[in-house]
């Protein structure tokens, strides 16, 4: 059984739709969201912490909306911005400030099961702030840091539009791809093209071959 580590029911719905109901169990665990410019170090750190907590194979899902004209804002801060400004305010800001409304969604899945495998290069090393916070520390911290993690990234391009649709979650109503917003699609339709669907596809292929 795979523990899908998230507090977000929408993510779990899509993971179950893709991987199968019986294979995914939600682990509602709030790992430390380290400050970083990319999703990779956040997801890797989360997977290590979640594995130490659960003692079973875990998959962490970190995602964000990156608006081209805002240099990728809100990116890794997407959850904070959704909670504070709200999705519709982001859309109004884009409409007011930008002629060019292109954006992309990214999703990074991080897998950890305490075992050895062809682990991804450690993204924590790439980010000075995260590395500084993660070096030193006690033995527990050093053991957590040493756990191998495998990363799978997915991305989809689209544009920011006025909200449409009742499905999905988060920024889905304002993200349009090929004429439809993600909130106008079923979970299966969204998975077929989305950042999460692509990352899940890469993960499933690797996991089956293990
Ligand atoms: O950290 P967890 O517990 O998984 O839950 P979260 O919702 O805080 O997840 P993130 O840190 O990955 O935050 C990503 C933000 O982007 C939003 N988001 C993530 N995936 C999305 C998707 O597929 N469609 C629309 N919005 C999405 C989500 O609602 C958050 O506001």
TrEMBL record:
GO terms, biological process: nucleoside triphosphate catabolic process
SUPFAM superfamilies linked: ITPase-like
Key word S-adenosyl-L-methionine present: no
One protein family per Pfam: Ham1p_like
GO cellular component: cytoplasm
Domain of life of the organism encoding this protein: Archaea
Keyword Hydrolase: yes
GO molecular function terms listed in the Swiss-Prot or TrEMBL record: nucleoside triphosphate diphosphatase activity
Keyword terms of this UniProt record: Hydrolase
PANTHER family per the UniProt record, alphabetical: INOSINE TRIPHOSPHATE PYROPHOSPHATASE (PTHR11067:SF9), INOSINE TRIPHOSPHATE PYROPHOSPHATASE/HAM1 PROTEIN (PTHR11067)
Family that this chain belongs to: Belongs to the HAM1 NTPase family.
Protein name, entry field: Non-canonical purine NTP pyrophosphatase
């Amino acid at each position: 059984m795979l523990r899908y580590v998230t507090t977000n029911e929408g993510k779990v719905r899509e993971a179950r739709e893709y991987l199968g109901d019986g294979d995914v169990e939600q682990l509602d665990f709030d790992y430390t969201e380290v400050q970083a410019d990319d999703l990779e170090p956040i997801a890797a750190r989360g997977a290590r912490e979640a594995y130490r907590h659960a003692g079973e194979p875990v998959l962490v899902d970190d995602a964000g909306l990156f608006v081209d004209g805002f240099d990728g804002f809100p990116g890794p801060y997407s959850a904070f911005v959704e909670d504070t400004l709200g999705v519709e305010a982001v859309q109004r800001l884009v409409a007011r400030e930008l002629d060019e409304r292109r954006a992309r969604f990214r999703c990074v899945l991080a897998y950890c099961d305490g075992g050895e495998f062809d682990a991804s290069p450690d993204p924590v090393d790439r980010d000075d702030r995260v590395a500084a916070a993660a070096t030193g520390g006690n033995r527990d911290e050093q053991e957590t840091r040493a756990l191998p993690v495998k990363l799978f990234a997915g991305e989809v391009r689209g544009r920011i539009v006025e909200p449409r649709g009742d499905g999905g979650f988060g920024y889905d109503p304002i993200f349009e791809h090929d004429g439809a917003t993600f909130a106008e699609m079923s979970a299966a339709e969204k998975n077929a093209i989305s950042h999460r669907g692509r990352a899940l596809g890469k993960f499933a292929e690797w996991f089956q071959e293990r």
